[in-house]
Amino acid sequence: MRSAALIAAAALATAVLVVLLGSRSEPRLAGSNGVDAGSYSITLADGRRHCERNQLVPADADRLRMTIASFDRPMPPIALTITRPDGGVAVDRRVPAPPRQGPVELPLGVTTEAPLRGATVCVRPGGRKIALAGFARNARLEWLRPGSESELGVAGTIAHRFGIGKPGWMGAWTLVAALLLIAGVWVLTARVVLRETAP
Amino acid sequence: MGAHRPCRAAGDGALSRLRDGWRRIPRAGRACALIALVNGIVWALLIPPYHVPDEPVHVAYTQYLAETGKLPTHDPGPEYSTEQQVQLAALDFYAVTGNRGDKPPWSSLQQERLEDATDGKRRDDGGHKSVASNNPPLYYMAEAVAYRLTPGASLMTRLYAMRLVSALMAALTVLFVFLFVRELLPASPWAWTVGALAVAFQPMFGFESGGVNNDNLLYLCSAALFFALARAFRRGLTVRRGAFIGLALGAGVLTKFTMAAFAPAVGLALLVLTWRAAPEDRRAAFRAAGVAVALGSALLLMYVAANSVVWGRPLLQDAAGVSTPSPGAGRAGGLREQLSYYWQLFLPRLPFMQDHFPHAVPLWDTWFTGFNGRFGWLDYDFGRPFYRWIGWLVYLPLLVLAGVGLYRSRAALGRRLLELAVYALAVLGLVVAIARPSYTTFLSGAAFPFFQPRYILPLLPLFAAIVALAVRGAGRRAAPFVGTVVVMLALMHTLFAQLLTITRYYA
């Protein structure tokens, strides 16, 4: 009986913790270009443009996050353009000067509905030189989803992502299967404990 | 037709003996193994391909062996097949590994690229020097069976088939841990279950069991060896038990040379067991010890011969089992410095010792925090406060209770001091096996400290024994309560490690 109560308490505590930890909201990535932002590797003079070619702009992104330094002076406005492989312009915006140097979010003005492959992403400072964080001649690009979201709030997205980068026959159902197996582990463990501690 | 009958009869006999043996295992032990299997499958599903340490090179070794029937060489050249190379690139593996801020492919476009990229690519053109190419082949042979049993499948599907084999090995490891604790504490059945489940839910063990890595078979062999030794100490050394000891040690050495660290302990155990045997049984005990030595040596000799005759490799390849600078590569160290280094690698530095780890305390920063969860390519964990809390709230009471358990068993302890000495020698052997290449790396001036938390997992049976002792130390009335608390905490630990893994890669 005492074991049953302990198991119930553990299950309840786990559920509460999962809800508490899973409800914390923060900006969530839609994707990145995988470049390490280990240093300010690209210096960009006023008016000069830096482009990252052949980029994948993910779906569900509404802003681009980059780490930009302005040499401890106020940040200049940044022009952001995203060009499709056929030369068509997907985004062309002049983002007002961000409040401070460091991680900077550049709004796209739209939320991307589908992924765009082979895009060219360019930034250009207007009024002052800047430095972009990246590795060698590549800057790190992070695409963010709209607003702030909790982990539980993006559960559907997590399930979709879970099926990617795996064999083709796997899909979102794999996460459901894994969660069911976890539940199975709990049930099996509870049964063993109850049976072995029975008077 | 008639000639097949004896073979079939022998096969049926072996099968029925196996079935009988399985039935003789307490139901709780079988349940613990099943739980470990399911938990291993969960981990296999949660971890993205290749994100268990060194998984790419272990998959490469298996693929090369399965495709060509040969072992990888230690010559320079591509370590991966073309198929695996393009797969790793399509998975953005090199950007994601070790870099918490980057994620594996999330987009359907990347999935299409991944599936297209590997189509028709060569599978047999890897097999050159990697950190795994010096390993003996036993684990890879088992994995090659899984590889071959999924014919026509993509490497990705085969990787998951291989991961299932690792999960199965984890289940057997937990089963042997259960049986080991049963031999140690025969009068405390509940403690067997708690000890085995503490191992099944040990998060680093679970994480490893979800990936392709020869450590999984090493853990199985070491658990089998600890069980075989404990059984021989409790019930006497017979030829069959001697054969099991030799087989467990030999199979372990054919998996990873780290297992040789247990050879001195096995030697001591065989000496003690033959010396302790009753005069009328001594001859049989000598024979059993001889079988253990002969079987272990025969397996090693077969490997040495196959290296030379079949695979054209050096006799023992690189017996260190790890890719470290050769001993002469750096400055020469002294014995005093070496001992001091070994000590500090595992224990707090004493005041008179020169500080070899100025930026960390390995006992805490590597072994304790790593044991309790540092995942991926050591790129995500629970955060420092978590480890402090469980140190004080879980491990300290557990150790106190285990101390009480030892005190309560002091009469039996006196009778089993030599058995304890064997386990202590096993620990010492592994300590030296871990510290030696690390010290060589240190002498070479390399910045990378060559030790990882998973290296101590062959000692999981002793971890289970400590947990079981704690349950016993709680006393008969409190044992069900303490054991249930331990199991539920371990279960929660592993669940949150799995949720952490989901957020690391998919959120």
CA gyration radius of chain A, whole angstroms: 23 Å
* Oligomeric state of this protein: heterodimer
- The CATH class label of the largest domain in chain A is Mainly Beta
What is the rounded distance between the termini of chain B? Answer: 61 Å
Would you tell me the structural class of the helices and strands of chain B? Answer: mainly alpha
| Shape label of chain A | elongated
Number of helices of chain B: 21
Kindly estimate the percentage of residues of chain A that lie in beta strands according to DSSP. Answer: 25-35%
Task: Please indicate the count of domains of chain B.
Answer: 1
- Tell me how many strands of chain B there are: 2
Q: What class would the helix/strand composition of chain A place it in?
A: alpha+beta
> What share of residues are in beta strands of chain B?
under 5%
Structural Rg of chain B? 23 Å
Helix content of chain A: 25-40%
SSE sequence of chain B, one letter per element: HHHHHHHHHHHHHHHHEEHHHHH
Stretches of chain A where pLDDT is under 50 for at least 5 consecutive residues are: none
| CATH topology term of the largest domain in chain A | Hypothetical Protein Tm1070, Chain: A
Task: Name the CATH architecture of the largest domain in chain A.
Answer: Sandwich
Average the pLDDT over all residues of chain A and give the rounded result. 96
Q: Provide the domain count of chain A.
A: 2
Unreliable stretches covering 5 or more consecutive residues of chain B = 319-323
